[in-house]
Amino acid sequence: MEPLLVFPDPPPPALTHALTGAGYPFRPATTSDEATRLEPEDGWAGALICSDDDPEGAAAMCRHLRKRDIPLEPLLLVVRSSHLGSLEPREDLFDDFCLLPLQPGELEARLKHLFWRTGRGTRPELIEYGPLILNLETYQAAIDGRPLDLTYMEYELLRFLATHPGKVFTREMLLSRVWGYEYYGGARTVDVHVRRLRAKLSEEHAALIQTVRSVGYRFGQSRWGL
Amino acid sequence: MEPLLVFPDPPPPALTHALTGAGYPFRPATTSDEATRLEPEDGWAGALICSDDDPEGAAAMCRHLRKRDIPLEPLLLVVRSSHLGSLEPREDLFDDFCLLPLQPGELEARLKHLFWRTGRGTRPELIEYGPLILNLETYQAAIDGRPLDLTYMEYELLRFLATHPGKVFTREMLLSRVWGYEYYGGARTVDVHVRRLRAKLSEEHAALIQTVRSVGYRFGQSRWGL
DNA sequence: GCCTTCATGAACTACGTGTGAACCAGGCGG
DNA sequence: CCGCCTGGTTCACACGTAGTTCATGAAGGC
After folding, report:
1. A73-124 pLDDT, tens per residue?
2. Which residue of A73, A76, A78, A113 to mutate against B (max B Cβ within 10 Å)?
3. Strand D–CB B223 distance below 7 A
4. How far is B170 from chain A (nearest CA, A)?
5. Partners of A96 in the β-ladder
6. Number of helices (H) and strands (E), helices first, in chain A?
7. In what order do the strands lie in the sheet with A75-80?
8. HSE-up of residue B205 (Cα within 13 Å, Cβ side)
9. Which pLDDT band holds residue A223 (cuts at 50, 70, 90)?
10. Is B13 near strand D, with its CB below 7 A from some atom of it?
11. Are the CB atoms for A65 and A83 separated by under 8 Å?
12. What pLDDT does A122 receive?
């Protein structure tokens, strides 16, 4: 079995103990460069990121692993229970989490379940919202069955919006989440991309992206009629 | 939000406490027949099966929920840490698990992540006061289930008032807290926004915002019923 | 009954967004 | 190596909506 990537280096003793006890091979790394350099030929089997000592570094590592061409999965985050709140805005950065202090056997069980889950491909490679279909594997989009010719940024923006239907995002949130965390550019850039997206969605579906005045943009109808 | 199906009936106190604390509606059931009979029109939002008291019944419930035409998802299993081993042959019966004794916040975080994973997004953050609902994520408001078309300032004002029901605010307090600390404008601005809000709330609910003469405005009934 | 306070309607102003087009940067082919 | 082409960013302007102010009348308190 390929080794797991573990952050940080050295890992907390409890983590090392649990991993060796469960029989999983692993290699620790602290920087994303290290992670790239140490990566086995066939790729990591998964990652186990402990954010206890260095939350910033852990978050950076998660982002790096998920932003690659082939996002690394599964990614298990280990976090102290008092920092549970920090997970909320980062749902997309991990597949499961495990609390410190570790319960005997829990880490092993979670890894097992994660491998089972990801092995069966429960992760959808399609995003569908009404008439819109995004194929995450082929980077193609279609609406009403008609293919859309989207540029890279248009696709990324639409994908991000479509994965959070109903939710309003400010321009700044979109710039940081779609363009990149340290991007600094004019907020009007978002406007222009939204305009092009609306233009490429046919006239009838342009309303899929709504502007919320003084706030930002929202994709799709919010579902709270229900 | 549709309620969660919870097993067994009655659930362990810790479970009830965690669920109500997190704000998730739920209905307990002990048999699969009950689960079918109690199921809401739009289906369960998910299931939370506690196998502590009755492992057999819990496993049966999981199988039943997963074998339906439309398998119920997500399904969170709550299990005592000493019984971790019993999970192994049943990977397909649950989407995530949570150990007893419960860590504060863990159940809520797991539910949130589960809902995010299964594509339903996170539980929307709502402010509810009687017939009024404010959705903080989608910037939408509704009363009696009917959506309200509020402008940005109207929404902000209503949100601020609704988060402090019963409390009286002077116009100056509202200007500083809603409009901004360094805002300097006429205090009558508040009046106008209150008027528009009352107009958009239907006639019957206009009294949700009361004027306290010579003082300011108050949202909702004062605690003393008067 | 007078004075203060608030509601109402309408006019004014300003900000936010849509839109068209120009400007760059990188990639590819001639 | 140069120039075109595509895609991303920025700019300028116009328009509409939303926020603010004002004038007036009604209501409440002393």
Report:
1. 789 999 988 888 777 767 778 989 999 888 888 999 999 888 888 765 445 5
2. A113
3. no
4. 25
5. A76
6. 7, 12
7. A26-28, A4-7, A46-50, A75-80, A96-100
8. 18
9. very low
10. no
11. no
12. 47
What's the Rg (C-alpha) of chain A? Answer: 20
> Is B132 strand, coil or helix?
strand
Structure tokens at A177: 């989440």
Contacts by A116-124, CB closer than 8 A, 24 or more apart = A116/B91, A116/B92, A117/A74, A117/B91, A117/B95, A118/A46, A118/A73, A118/A74, A123/A73, A124/B119
In chain A, % of residues over pLDDT 70? 92
Residue count of chain A, please give it.
226
User: Model confidence over B63-92: pLDDT tens digits?
Assistant: 888 877 667 878 999 998 888 877 777 788
A167 touches chain B (CB under 8 A): yes
- The residues pairing with B126 across neighbouring beta strands, listed in sequence order, are B135
List chain D nucleotides near protein: any atom < 7 Å from a Cβ: 6-12, 17-23, 28-29
Q: Rounded CA gap, A215 and B162, in Å?
A: 20
Provide φ and ψ at B119, rounded to 5°: 85, 5
Structure tokens, B151: 């402008």
Strand A126-129: give its sheet, edge to edge: A126-129, A132-135, A140-143, A146-148
Provide the residue type at A50 as one letter: C
Long-range contacts from A187-194, C-beta under 8 angstroms, 24+ separation: A190/A157, A190/A217, A193/A153, A193/A154, A193/A157, A194/A157
pTM: 0.64
**Gap between the Cα atoms of A191 and A217, Å rounded:** 9
